[in-house]
Amino acid sequence: MGAARSAVREGRTSWKKTAVVALPAVLAVGAMASVMAEGALAASFAVSGTSFQVSSGKLTSQGLSSYVQTDRDIDGKGHPVALLGIGDATLSDICQAAEVKTPVGTVVFKLTAGGDAGQVTASNLVIDGEDLEGDARFGTAQIGRDASTLDEVPGVKGEKGKFGLQAGDITVSGVKSHAWSATGGNFRLKGMKLDVSVGGKKCF
Questions:
Q1: Where residue 2 falls among pLDDT bands split at 50, 70, 90?
Q2: Is the CA virtual torsion 73, 75, 78, 79 positive or negative?
Q3: DSSP-assigned beta bridge partners for residue 108
Q4: How far is the C-alpha of 128 from the C-alpha of 164, rounded, in Å?
Q5: How many CB atoms lie within 10 A of CB 99?
Q6: How many other C-beta atoms lie within 10 A of the C-beta of residue 89?
Q7: Torsion angle of alpha carbons 113, 87, 166, 141, nearest 10°?
Q8: Which of the 8 DSSP states describes residue 140?
Q9: How far apart are CA 45 and CA 29, in angstroms?
């Protein structure tokens, strides 16, 4: 009987002890989710060995922060990029396209949204781009500000002593960029379409 009671005691779960062990992990996951929502982990993952196109007819935002950093692929190769942190972004439309080599030929992976279906929105959009084209209007601008003091877009800051810039409300028409990564919170893609085709047409 005593052995049976001992077995029951051994099989029980101590919820207090479990909570003590699990709490740090839960807090860490919560903190990571919060930081990701702020865009601060934009380049925390290894990028693929292929950059991709991003385009939009018009982009507007309440703020922009930017500084230079290096993205790395799975083999450790570095890709210098301008990290563009954009606050609450609204896009008239969006197109993303990448060329991928496959056994049946070069395939274009293409995603589009917006246009006649309605605007595309995203909070704390972060694009690691190697170039950017478009006609821009900045409400206010600070060029040459220390990257570690940027405060226009939550969570988007660079290293101390590094070159940075930021601007208030912005509007960019005819957006074209080649990027290595893009992240954002609360993406709302109205009329989203995904197309994978051999020799397909890219964004531009």
A1: low
A2: negative
A3: 99, 197
A4: 14
A5: 16
A6: 24
A7: 80
A8: S
A9: 16
Instruction: Please count the CA atoms within 13 angstroms of the CA of 147 that sit on its side-chain side.
Output: 17
CB count within 10 Å of CB 132 equals 17
Q: Pull the structure tokens for residue 166.
A: 């930021």
Would you give the DSSP letter of residue 147? G
DSSP letters of 62-81?
S-EEEEEEEEEBTT--EEEE
Q: Hey, CA dihedral for 70, 36, 139, 146, is it positive or negative?
A: negative
Higher pLDDT, 70 or 39: 70
Q: What is the pLDDT of residues 147-187, one digit of tens each?
A: 999 999 988 999 999 999 999 999 999 999 999 999 888 88
Checking phi first, is residue 41 left (phi over 0); if not, alpha (psi -120 to 50) or beta?
Answer: alpha
Sort strands 52-61 and 93-102 into parallel, antiparallel or unpaired: antiparallel
Other beta carbons less than 10 A from residue 26's beta carbon: 10
**What are the angstrom distances between the C-alpha of 58 and each of 35, 40, 72, 126, 188?**
27, 24, 29, 16, 16
pLDDT band, very low/low/confident/very high, at 124 (cuts 50, 70, 90): confident
pLDDT number for residue 44: 57
